[in-house]
User: What shape does this take?
Amino acid sequence: MTNFMHLSLVAKLAPDDYTGFTFFVGCMAMMAASAFFFLSLSQFDKKWRTSVLVSGLITFIAAVHYFYMKEYWGEFHESPTFFRYVDWILTVPLMCVEFYLILKVAGAKTALLWKMIAYSVVMLITGYLGETLFKDQAQIWGLISGIAYFAIAYEIWLGSASKLAKAAGGAVLESHKILCWFVLVGWAIYPLGYMLGTDGWYSSILGKGSVDVAYNIADAINKIGFGLVVYNLAVKSTDK
Assistant: This one.
């Protein structure tokens, strides 16, 4: 505890430390989103409370990790890769769970839930291995991670999740499509960041560099945005 307090006192952000600034803003934004989602739970029907609760858990977990990442950056000025992947291994599967939760009204089975979780875990574990432990084989691990990412994208855009959303129609279909765009466009920054941070055939095209600022902005937009889409769906369904 003493060491942690010492770290918090020593770590200071310079006025031009934009990376540290985005860590701080990301932490505050996701903590505020968590409070919003948790405090709004009582206004929804029981069948939607779990979805909104998960949205709050996603942003709360991220806020805690961003607090630690802010301190780590302020002290060492190094990308907090370990903390970031710990955050992702908890929050990304929960974001995949959101698809299952909103599609339960159309008869989604637990098989869809475990399939989405499995794809996300493979995507993250292989990404971590390629970015940290096996950097000389980053291309191979990145390829496996990319395949898992595209499997998620296929499932929600063209697979069983898409069919369930179409069967549900209305607000569920609309929300599902928005979440699909978050995955396709919003999540695209993550494989790009992986390639910028590792060596491979892509290095000569993209070069190398830190993308912490982009990661931080993308995390806040994706996680809070996911939650707001689910919140809006819950509001519309409860009003009915």
About this structure: Residues 42 and 144 are 42 Å apart (CA to CA). The chain has a mean pLDDT of 90.
